[in-house]
Amino acid sequence: MGFLSEFKAFAMKGNVVDLAVAVIIGAAFGKIVNSFIEDVITPLVLKPALDAAHLSRIEDLTAFGGVKYGLFLSAVINFIIVAFVLFLIIKALNSLKKKDETPAAPAGPTQEELLTQIRDLLKNK
Questions:
Q1: Which of 20, 42, 69, 83 sits a CA distance of 20 to 30 A from 30?
Q2: What's 56's DSSP letter?
């Protein structure tokens, strides 16, 4: 088998194509989540604190004449918000999955139990 045909067989496997689609959708979803955090949640949560510090963005926080710890705080806050939003999404998906599962039908008598019942009926006759 030639190198190109091996590569084609590898690239066209179902799990490789599924992974590529997941990465693309994950990147698009990541942009949505980042926009939600940076444009909606962070300003709502941090607005009072930033106003008290006379700042417009958390990234502008500095210490010791130039250490931009505001960038670090912004990254930490973004991580916490992303983790919480993902937790809520996974929790919702798990609750939907639990509702979709139907309970298994009760198991009927086993073959041995049926044979025992037949034997007992035949003895009683």
A1: 69
A2: S
